Amino acid sequence: MHKLGTALAAFLLAVAQAQAWNMATPYPPANFHTQNILQFVKEVEEATGGRLKITVHPGGSLFPHPQILPAVRNGQVQLGEVLMSLLANENPLFELDSIPFVATSYEEARRLYQAQRPEVEKWLASRGVVFLYAVPWPPQGLYTKKPVASAQDLRGMRFRAYNPATARLAELLGMAPVQVEAADIPQAFATGIVEAMITSPVTGVDTQAWDFSRYFHDLKAWIPKNMVVIGRRAFESLSAQDREALLRAARRAEERGWRLSQEREEVALQTLAQRGMQVVKPTPQLMADLKKAGDTMILDWQRKVGATGALVYRKYLGR
Ligand code: PCA
Q1: pTM above 0.90?
Q2: Ligand 1 center to residue 111 CA distance, Å?
Q3: CATH number at residue 31
Q4: Which of 138, 87, 77 is nearest to 116 (CA)?
Q5: Among the atoms of ligand 1, which is closest to the Cα of residue 203?
Q6: Residue 206 has what DSSP assignment?
């Protein structure tokens, strides 16, 4: 075969072998988690010489958030991103990063992640899922229409929950929890289904929180994480070389994501203020009330978590 023919044949072979995969994620396109994922898949495509192309479907457009992990497990989609603490009912281990005041700084969040990660990996592996990396949201604060000085001011409100921990917190504070995905927040506030929420400054910006709330109480109450996973079948279908490329890109995405999270917290806090929101320091009473709820939650958690979870928590505390 002459030269051009050989090149053409090689090209056609590469195209035939190229994998076109999909990835389901729950958060909007402009969010830094999504942007980080887009960079990740770009690096994977480059590092595999185009053998692995991944199309990202953000905002729950391919699968709604609660169905993303099941879809990865049964091979309906190759990759997915999930809020780890959404899985708290399946394994309490996932809940730990969303219990108020367990880990409130990035430094603590990183240590908690290191303690959680081996067990999370094992749990997922036994379900046919390969853990790739995790990235934190900025610390969580309270959005309301009126200033809140203590938990008393929250009583009776309809509260937007995004996982079992936020629902439990609402109950402990005398509020009525309503599970609402991030994509549905503006609608939920506009129609009065909810009137308060705890989330990051970043999600406040994503949802234009200034349209439906006036106060952001900067609680820095916990730092939840998203994880990125791949189905084992898909992972094992890759050559050793491409697997390594994927894992390398994942490690880079994790480092980048932790940095981005901290940078975006600052920017988002400024945006909330520029858009006319009052970004306020919580009163000592509000903090004390929330800490009390957090204490109840961690005690309940320790009761239900079992030996593995107890070890993870002790490891995090350095005991
Ligand atoms: N944003 C996500 C989870 C935590 C956060 O900061 C949400 O509100 O759904």
Answers
A1: yes
A2: 21
A3: 3.40.190.170
A4: 87
A5: 1
A6: H
| Digit-coded pLDDT (tens) for 134-181 | 999 999 999 999 999 999 999 999 999 999 999 999 999 999 999 999
Q: Give yes or no for residue 166 CB within 6 A of ligand 1.
A: no
Q: Is 2 exposed, middle or buried (0-12, 13-18, 19+ CB in 10 A)?
A: exposed
Question: Tell me: the pLDDT tens digits for 53-107?
Answer: 999 999 999 999 999 999 999 999 999 999 999 999 999 999 999 999 999 999 9
- CA dist 199 and 138 (Å) reads 9
Task: Please give the span between the terminal C-alpha atoms of the chain, in angstroms, as a whole number.
Answer: 69
Q: Answer whether 182 contacts ligand 1 (Cβ < 6 A).
A: yes
Q: Which domain holds residue 260?
A: 20-137+224-270
* Domain contains 68: yes
Q: How many domains in the chain? A: 2
For ligand 1, mutation pick of 68, 83, 87, 99 (most atoms within 8 Å of CB): 83
Identify which of 65, 95, 137 to mutate to test ligand 1's pocket (most ligand atoms within 8 A of the CB): 137
